[in-house]
Amino acid sequence: MIARPWIRFVALIRCSQIGPDVEPARLWSDFERFLKDQPVTSLVNGLTSPVPGVRWTRWATNSPGTIQGVLTSGEENAAIASARLELPDGTRRHFHDSASAVLALHFEPPADNRNAPFPAGPVAWTDHIKRALELPNSVNGFVSGQFGLTTSGDPPVVLGFRLDAPRDLAELFDVTGLNKLPGGQHGRQAIGYFIADPDGTPAAEITNRMIDDVLRYGLQAER
To answer: What is the spatial distance between Cα 108 and Cα 166, in angstroms, rounded to a whole number?
Structure first.
């Protein structure tokens, strides 16, 4: 099996609990429409290489408030992306606050596709991260508007990210033409998170700072 680079975004927002009479099929139908809308569609198109026939397919879950699916043209192992939404339903969560809505988007660009979108330069990555920063607001509108749940910014809304390469972050980031700093080693991972703050740094500025940090400390390169 060929190891592939992958990207994951996780948005977390405080949220009220869904009712006990929720219909899983309805949850999936609504979630599928969410996945076909912005900003998810732009992220899918930018971070994968969709081929004709790919579609979101519902996947099994282990609790009433969890909805998940894979983007594939057939079998699970052909999936190029997956999505999981966890809504508070009274189930104890092991890895995060059980009173929050959590969206996880996972992307794995195909390893054998000549049109694979990676490695990509800083300009393309800036666009991807800006799109990802729209996810918390989209989740907020979705769970409050579609399901009538109450959301809150206390504690603050969070967007986490993880970029992972089997050998070298240069599999994801193209540093051609950048100033490469000698004497260092390339990293394999870049992990971090953004925390919402009304008095914080504008999205465009914080995105550029994040890209510069990945280049400088993960790839020893500067723009």
So the answer is: 12
